[in-house]
Amino acid sequence: MTDMEENEIQSGQGPGIEVQAASSSMQPSSAPELSASKPSGMEQGSATLNEALSAQKPSTMTEPLGNADNMGQSQKIENVKSSQLDTQEKDNSLAQQAETAQRPRVKPGLVDVIAGESKGFNANIQPYLPGELIGGSIPHVFGTEDEAVWNAAAQACGTERVHYTYTVEGGRIWYLACPSSLMASNPDSWCPLAAALPGNSEHWDKETVYLYEQEGMASALRWDQETGRMQVFLGATRTILPRMQSMDANFVTVNSETASIVMWHNRMLHTEKLSRALIRMLIFMGVGVNAIAASILFISIISIAFIHGDLNKIKDDTDQAAFKLMENAAEVMQSDTIRHMARIQHLLDNISQSNGYLVRYEVSGKRTEWNAIVPTALSDQARTDTKYVDVVGSKVKKYVAKVTKEDEDNVRLVGKK
Prior knowledge:
With 417 residues, the protein is an alpha+beta fold. It has three domains: 3-85, no CATH class; 110-265, no CATH class; 337-416. It has helices at residues 3-10, 15-26, 42-55, 62-102, 110-114, 145-157, 237-245, 267-306, 312-333, 337-353, 379-385, and strands spanning 126-127, 134-139, 162-169, 172-179, 189-190, 208-214, 217-223, 230-236, 250-253, 357-364, 367-375, 388-392, 395-399, 402-405, 410-416. The strands form five sheets. The chain has a four-stranded mixed sheet with strand order 8-7-6-9, with helices on one face. Strands 10-11-15-14 form a four-stranded antiparallel sheet, covered by helices on one side. A hairpin with a 2-residue loop joins strand 10 and strand 11.
């Protein structure tokens, strides 16, 4: 660079500054544009700057104009940076929401709903690889799966407080378990390696080795081809992965974001939850029964209050029944039963005196008819003895039996009234 060029730059008349001044005077609202001028255009740039300076007021200097443009440019750069940061934050939030939406969520079960713990149920279950993980298989006996797995896991872990999960396949129960104390810092978690158990979402076949790695720890799940036993390997990543890679098998890495969540089971916690559900259900049933009884009692009280004691109809019915009963009693007292009994006794006595016997006595309304068999020789005496005299008012009526031949030795007396 020549001495003339250095003087021009130091005095504010260099190529870059003249373009900046010209652009700032012509377009104040737009950002300044810097262009690298060739050395051959130095004189042309100086003339342009002189023209721009002559067009401004005397108070407008080149240096303050350049500072204002620099400040505007810095502010615009900061605005661009802030907008980029906002866009990046939005992208991160959208990515996080998409990841959360893709992650399977666990819904509360029926026992949680009955126990009233569905609102406090944590559906955001996080993957966690326990430091002590065991696995195995036991024969399957229908109806005793939980008890059998808990017994095997308790013996293997040396404590009854264990978390376990299992599947049933091929007549055997395949399970993973760990001591419950390992969940101290990860209470709402699940083991992604459990998704590789037979019957779960990540299981392909028993010839494949299933791997899962988390925070420097790695685990592997495989089946021995000779014995068919399930083997669980757990340790540091730098030791487990080379060991697994040395095996002649296919490898599948379990993805905790897409695998179906397999929850841990804890027998004691499940028993306590069932107790809470039972107590809550009994309380609600008691409250319901009491509410029904109270409603029935309330309805009864209201019904009694609105019912009027109208006993007139009952009184009338009672009077009619009593009157009818009195009429029946009067009819019984006025009946001719006693008179007929006396008449029959009289006939029997008189006919027996004539060596005869009474064979028929019929009462039909007010009409009476009787028949008797007596010897022929005593028929006249029998007729006289069985004569009946009835007094009606001032009239006297006599009824004498008629005689008809019955056989050679006897006759029939027929008496009518």
